[in-house]
């Protein structure tokens, strides 16, 4: 299909990795619907990309609203070809200090909302017998990182769910894959690492390529996995990490 006729949804596409993924799609001519909660970020993306971009304010944790959100996108665009489940939250806290409410809050945003939105989007994709879903995991699912138990649990769930979704949906024409980003130079991560020289050195020392990744590195990988060039790839969890997950 001509990319100009395709529609992609990117959650949390107003900043960081989500923004880079959305921009990679739009540079390729794919109309991209960005879901997010920050109206300023959404407006900035809309102003920059114009007709290639649709923005919708959406709180993914309000699960009961998601069917209507997907129905609105289908009404606007006629079809949904790509879904990128990027939106997520993190919390760094000592294990014994994490409350049940905080743990469940991480799972609601990072796992349950991903399932609920995917389910509604798949209903639209099935009408056309084709689609690509991309979930975003983390290095936290590859090895232990201190003080992020809830986040780690959520990303391990995402990787397992990716494989299960691929088994269920690939026979129906819908591929499902996942990217596990390494240490990427977003505003948030750069600020954290710059304030902790020891941690930054540890990150770089076990990354064979010797540097932080750029958001665009994730964007380009996402574009490939959602493209016709990856038509025989499904159920994959792809680390995009400069070798960090295999570093010593």
From TrEMBL:
PROSITE patterns documented for this protein: ADH_SHORT
Gene3D superfamilies: NAD(P)-binding Rossmann-like Domain
GO molecular function: oxidoreductase activity, acting on the CH-OH group of donors, NAD or NADP as acceptor; quinone binding
Organism: Dinghuibacter silviterrae
Signal sequence residues: none
Name of this chain's protein: NAD(P)-dependent dehydrogenase (Short-subunit alcohol dehydrogenase family)
GO terms under biological process: fatty acid biosynthetic process
CDD domains (alphabetical): SDR_c (cd05233)
Family: Belongs to the short-chain dehydrogenases/reductases (SDR) family.
């Amino acid at each position: 299909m001509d990319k100009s006729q395709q529609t992609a949804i990117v959650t949390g596409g107003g900043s960081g990795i989500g923004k880079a993924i959305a921009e990679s799609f739009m540079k390729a001519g794919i109309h991209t619907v960005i879901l997010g909660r920050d109206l300023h970020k959404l407006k900035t993306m809309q102003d920059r990309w114009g007709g290639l971009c649709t923005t919708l304010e959406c709180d993914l944790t309000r699960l009961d609203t998601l069917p209507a959100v997907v129905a609105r996108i289908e009404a606007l665009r006629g079809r949904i070809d790509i879904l990128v489940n990027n939106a997520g939250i993190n919390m760094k806290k000592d294990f014994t200090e994490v409350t049940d409410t905080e743990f469940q809050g991480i799972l609601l945003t990072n796992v349950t909302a991903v399932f609920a939105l995917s389910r509604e989007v798949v209903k639209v994709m099935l009408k056309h017998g084709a689609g690509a879903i991309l979930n975003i995991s983390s290095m936290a699912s590859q090895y232990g990182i201190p003080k992020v138990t809830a986040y780690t649990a959520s990303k391990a769930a995402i990787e397992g769910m990716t494989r299960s979704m691929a088994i269920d949906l690939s026979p129906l024409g819908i591929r499902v894959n996942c990217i596990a980003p390494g240490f990427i130079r977003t505003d948030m991560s750069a600020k954290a690492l710059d304030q902790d020289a020891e941690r930054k050195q540890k990150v770089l020392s076990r990354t064979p390529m010797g540097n932080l990744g750029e958001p665009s590195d994730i964007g380009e990988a996402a574009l490939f996995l959602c493209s016709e060039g990856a038509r025989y790839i499904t159920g994959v969890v792809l680390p995009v990490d400069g070798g960090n997950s295999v570093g010593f």
